[in-house]
From TrEMBL:
Keywords: Isomerase, NAD. InterPro entries: Epimerase_deHydtase, NAD(P)-bd_dom_sf, UDP_G4E. Residues 47-347 form the NAD-dependent epimerase/dehydratase domain. The keyword Isomerase applies. This is UDP-glucose 4-epimerase 5. The keyword NAD applies. It comes from the Eukaryota. Its cofactor is NAD(+).
């Protein structure tokens, strides 16, 4: 194994006069700084965030820095932009200065997590032991999956290759380096058509090993492995990913600690307005699509399905503020789980229709959103709402932000971005 030779390695330093780690240096496009030997021997622990420049990854990285954790971002920028990393650091610096905290270290590597360069990066943080490698990377959060339901239907091979094959190779590589704390970015799509039953979804609705639990009446129930009605290749990749991780964790329970976080519908952005959802290409998530309409990039919003069995005919979703979601990852990293593998829903527990979400953004922006009722899309379900008691009791995590705050924060980001342009 060799040291990293990536030309896109960036050691970033906070701005202004905040007290900072002396081993960090910014690398500009026209200036080259070699990493200091002092940095290589720096004893602190680090969290590796794969896909850390994306929407959820960037907000989670910011929350990690606020929590005092050193972070290494790996991202190939296939669905994000390098400027996001600068904005993460700026937002963290401002927050740390306001709260009299030192800014932890932040490093950015522009590479595909499936490439051989990842092993070279892990080499830099490896600690040789008598029998096996250990690492100064204390945990990994994996956001580097492809995530569009519609795209997965048209490009299933790409999704299986990246989301499933890439995950298998990644876990094997981490095991080689003695890195066994792993947080997996999963999805409520693993519940398939169970979402259409109209009941909030529990982690026990999809399990990978037999589990017993107390139901709402206090009686012992048994959950058997299996899944019902997965509606897209994307959903299948998330289910397969969880199943693989569960099998790996239970094969060596004394060393692995793996948490799968089942996201519902992240929206909003950091209150600073510096970070938001800004994917490359055409957005597919509801809120960035609406903002494209509000800012005139597109003429109208297509509301897919107006004949669902809901209060206004539009689909029901559990919209969660992305900063709340990000803080769930910090809780998942810090928790000592009783089993080697554990799943958690990250949602509010409240259902909002698409029409209600549109109304919230109209209120925040003071503008009308032209909308067209369109047929249902392949892979969609009519309702998807979380039961979040497990996250509440075991992660000591709960949501704090309302739908209205999500809309206000998003419009703040959009307004700042418009001024910058």
């Amino acid at each position: 194994m060799t040291a990293s030779t990536s030309s896109d390695s960036h050691l970033l330093t906070p701005v202004d006069s905040v007290t900072v780690n002396p081993f960090l240096y910014r690398v500009d496009d026209d200036v080259t700084f070699l990493e200091l030997d002092a940095y290589r021997s720096f004893p602190s622990q680090h969290v590796l965030v794969l896909g850390g420049a994306g929407f959820i990854g960037s907000h989670t990285t910011l929350e990690l820095l606020k929590a005092g954790k050193n972070v290494i971002i790996v991202d190939d920028l296939s669905n994000s932009f390098s400027v996001v990393v600068d904005k993460i650091l700026l937002a963290a610096t401002v927050w740390c200065k306001a709260n009299d905290r030192k800014v932890p270290s932040l490093r950015f590597e522009n590479l595909d997590y499936r490439s051989q360069d990842l092993a070279a990066l892990l080499d830099e943080y490896a600690i040789s032991g008598s029998s096996a490698l250990r690492s100064r990377i204390s945990g990994v959060i994996h956001f580097a999956a492809f995530k569009s339901v519609s795209e997965s239907i048209s490009q299933p091979i790409d999704y299986y290759r990246n989301n499933v094959c890439g995950l298998v190779d990644l876990v094997a590589l981490l095991d080689t380096y003695g890195i066994h704390k792993f947080v997996f970015s999963s999805s409520a799509t693993v519940y398939g058509t169970k979402a259409d039953l109209g009941q909030p979804l529990s982690e026990y609705d999809v399990v990978h090993h037999p589990e017993s639990f107390l139901d709402r009446h206090g009686d012992v129930s048994h959950a058997t492995p299996g899944v019902t009605g997965l509606t897209s290749p994307y959903g299948r990749t998330k289910y397969f990913g969880e199943a693989i991780l569960a099998d790996v964790a239970y094969s060596a329970p004394s060393k692995w600690s793996i948490v799968a976080l089942r996201y519902f519908n992240p929206i909003g952005c950091d209150a600073s307005g510096l970070l938001g959802e800004d994917p490359r290409g055409v957005p597919t998530n509801l809120f960035p699509v609406i903002t494209n309409v509000l800012t005139g990039r597109t003429s109208h919003l297509n509301i897919f399905g107006s004949d669902w069995d809901t209060r206004d005919g539009t689909a029901i979703r559990d919209f969660i503020h992305v900063s709340d979601l990000a803080r769930g990852h910090i809780a998942a990293l810090d928790i000592k789980i009783a089993e080697p593998f554990r799943t958690f829903n990250l949602g509010t527990g409240n259902g909002t229709t698409v029409a209600e979400a549109v109304s919230a953004l109209e209120h925040a922006s003071g503008r009308k959103v032209p909308a067209v009722l369109a047929p249902r899309r392949p892979g969609d379900v009519g309702s998807c709402v979380a039961r979040n008691e497990r996250a509440l009791s075991e992660l000591n995590w709960t949501t704090t932000e309302s739908l209205q705050q999500c809309a206000l924060d998003l419009w703040n980001f959009v307004s700042k971005a418009a001024v910058e342009r």
